[in-house]
Amino acid sequence: MVGLSRRQVLGAGLGLAGLTACGDISAREPQRFIPPARPGQKVHLTYWSWLKDLQKVCDIWNERHPDVEVEAVWIPVGNAGGYQRLFSSLAAGGGPDLAQVELRQIPAFLLVDGMVDLSRYGARQHAREYDEAVWNQVVFDRGIYGLPQDSGPCGFFYRADVMREVGGAPPATWAEWAELARRYREADKYLEVFSLGDTSLFASLAAQAGARWFRVEDDGWVVDMTDEATTRVAEFFDAAIDDDLVDVSVDALSTGWVAAAASGRIGAVTNGSWADALLAEVGGTEGLWRVAPMPTWGPAGFGSAQNGGSSVSVLRNCEHPKEAVDFALWMTTTREGIDAMIEHCGIGWSPAAGYIGQSRREPSEFFGGQRYNQEVFAPAAQQQNERWIWSPTTQQTFNVLGDGFREKITGESSIVEACRVAQDETVAMLRNEGLKVRAA
């Protein structure tokens, strides 16, 4: 369990307007316990999410629980406007009962006291039903502020035909990855890209190497983006860019990347398990793709990393939190709920311990008959950096990091320097929110 108290996250209630943009939610009365509905009482819950066809999942629940009806409401993906709607509705005293919130955004909602502590409604007894590394990202001190809904353990997706063409094999380590990347360049191809517009994967690679960018000590935040593990990863990609081993002209899984992968000019991508669905857009390549474990940094690191992941959280103004928790537990831990989310919503990796989903047990025609979910991602989900947590300003940190990555391409900076600048600016961001913070 992460040693981060609600008081530490809220920073004594100081400087919250920058995150809410609509008022100081922390000024409200402390959360009160709301008892369950009376037997036979009709309850209506709303769930705001960017998942497609989520109502079909809710309808299964509704049929079996006629007294607790859940209505799904679509909102844009978080940073495309969904979070602003949530923060605005919370500040106005309204909003949904439940909301899909990325794991990395939970501290931002805690900073505005926007989430219900689910431990008061029976969530704690279900901890062992989730993968530990993902569970740790919704638990702060004695509070539980969401139930893991999906995650993204990373693997190495590659075109087997292109790999044979260059005479290579899936790399077990990042050192082997660099040697393989040179083989691809000799064949006038790129093994992978280095994304400038999405820095979340770089954070995943740092976490895999053993980094802890954010932690809490003595009632304050510590930001450490220049540690040995992060610097190792940064130096590795500084060299890869300098040696032209990675394509920096497109972001991974973008439209441009899909075209390059279809032609065989780009041969692989290291990313979360959810990338399998996006690879289906690479026309004419069915049966050519395979998945291998993510390359590792060595004994000091971890076997995999997580890129992406979200929770289903109960928001502050919910009038029926016990019933909301019951629904969320059904959706994220039962075979019926998990299979329904996979079938209708195409969720990422299920964090439910011991069950990956019935369809994900089957061989995949697109991946040449490989049972890659069982072979690669089930073990990867257990090989995570369990001490990794996020800060209340994660997205802003990613934005600063991206600016530094682009300066690397123009020759004005380096990936190592971008991490140092991002650390300094993150410290300033947190301090501006009234939080106690220091650089490591």
UniProtKB/TrEMBL annotation:
InterPro entries: Bact_solute-bd_prot1, SBP. Keywords: Cell membrane, Lipoprotein, Membrane, Palmitate, Signal. Pfam families: SBP_bac_1. Transmembrane segments: none annotated. PROSITE patterns: PROKAR_LIPOPROTEIN. PANTHER family: ARABINOSE-BINDING PROTEIN-RELATED (PTHR43649), POLYGALACTURONAN_RHAMNOGALACTURONAN-BINDING PROTEIN YTCQ (PTHR43649:SF33). This is ABC transporter substrate-binding protein. It comes from Saccharopolyspora griseoalba.
